[in-house]
Amino acid sequence: MASEGAVSPAFAYTVVYVKDVAKSAAFYSAAFGYTIRRLDQSHKWAELESGTTTIAFTPLHQRETDALTGAVQLPDSAGERGPVEICFDYADVDAAYRRAVDSGAVPVSPPEQKSWGQKVGYVRDIDGIIVRMGSHVRA
Fold first, then answer.
1. CA angle, 78 as apex, 131 and 128 as ends, to 5°?
2. 82 with 95: CB under 8 angstroms?
3. pLDDT tens string 13-26
4. Angle at the Cα of 103 (from 60 to 18), degrees rounded to 5?
5. Contact criterion met (CB below 8 Å) for 135 and 91
6. What pLDDT digit, counting tens, does each position of 65-81 carry?
7. Which of 77, 72, 33 shows the shortest CA–CA distance to 55?
8. CA-CA distance, 131 to 101, in Å (whole number)?
């Protein structure tokens, strides 16, 4: 039988596969307000200072993972999106949205109040990944 620690993991990383690791890390720092914690010298790995869960960037294709887990598949057109959305909570969603767009994010949908009590806006990052910026919903 598995030990209790094996069934109670801590969520550690979200890895985002990007075209240019250094450029994406700099973009997320400017657009969404994160500090770059680490950018390795090879520019094949970067991490943002993002609390208990790390946001990391790595190249779209690399020998270390393509052969093991398969190649990253990108959407066929700019109108499609991948199967993952990155979500950030902000106290001031309008200001966060403006900052992201002013820093090069592509506007998708400006912030609007939702029926469930959250204010939400959407942008695309420089790799076309959807980023949701929303207010925290309190119970």
1. 30
2. no
3. 899 999 999 999 99
4. 5
5. yes
6. 767 777 777 777 777 77
7. 33
8. 11
- DSSP per-residue letters across 74-111: --SSTT---S--EEEE-S-HHHHHHHHHHTTPEEEEEE
Copy the structure tokens of residue 12: 């550690």
In the chain, the domains with their CATH numbers are 1-73 (3.10.180.10), 82-139 (3.10.180.10)
- Continuous H helices in the chain: 21-32, 63-69, 93-102
pTM over 0.90: no
Burial of 85 (0-12, 13-18, 19+ CB in 10 A): exposed
Count of CB atoms within 10 A of residue 78's CB?
9
What whole-number distance in Å separates Cα of residue 129 and Cα of residue 139?
Answer: 29
Q: Helix (H, G, I), strand (E, B), or coil: what is residue 60?
A: coil
Paired tokens of 124: 């695309």
